[in-house]
Amino acid sequence: MQVLSVKMAQPTTRQVEVLNKLNFEEFVEKLGNIVEKSPMVAAAVWSKRPFCSLQDVHKAIGDFIDGLPIYGKEGLLRCFPDLAGKLTREGRLSADSTGEQRSAGLFDLTTEEQTNIARLNSRYKEKFGFRFVLCARLNKKDAILAGLKTRINNSKDEEIKTGIGEAKKICWLRLVDVVQRERVGVIANL
């Protein structure tokens, strides 16, 4: 599984040790949304501790996801919100999704862009039975719209594979965020 190279401070071994010391409930609380609305993923990988690195945590998560049957992967993709969808407009996204969609420019869509994305999101869900998943933090609104237009022509198998790959990118960025926040919390408590 590919680990993304992202321009941000890389977590240290000491920061990963903080994750290793968390009890089950704390671990699930901290990592419960690294895969959108899927705390079961964090619950499953807790047993894989101790982790040697953040990449090791990410690999355990990826291995768990890859081991899911097709209907499990589809279910996981259904947990992600529509990009620039109803939850975005109503302000009901998770804090993680809000930040990700905001960074991609999805809070600043024109009426025409909003209508176009809503139409494509709807067609995509009708065709595949799950939501279009794309790592918004690594894309901007034009790339997201182009991705929707292109990927709607893929087969269901291609989209499950692509969507899961995008979910893993989101997971990696959220995992780094959690460890960075935890580091700030540890420093603040010194």
UniProtKB/TrEMBL annotation:
It comes from Branchiostoma lanceolatum. Belongs to the OHCU decarboxylase family. Residues 20-175 form the Oxo-4-hydroxy-4-carboxy-5-ureidoimidazoline decarboxylase domain. Gene3D superfamilies: Oxo-4-hydroxy-4-carboxy-5-ureidoimidazoline decarboxylase. It comes from the Eukaryota. GO terms for molecular function: 2-oxo-4-hydroxy-4-carboxy-5-ureidoimidazoline decarboxylase activity. The gene is URAD. Pathway: Purine metabolism; urate degradation; (S)-allantoin from urate: step 3/3. Its EC number is 4.1.1.97. The keyword Transcription regulation does not apply. This is 2-oxo-4-hydroxy-4-carboxy-5-ureidoimidazoline decarboxylase. Catalyzes the stereoselective decarboxylation of 2-oxo-4-hydroxy-4-carboxy-5-ureidoimidazoline (OHCU) to (S)-allantoin. Keywords: Decarboxylase, Lyase, Peroxisome, Purine metabolism.
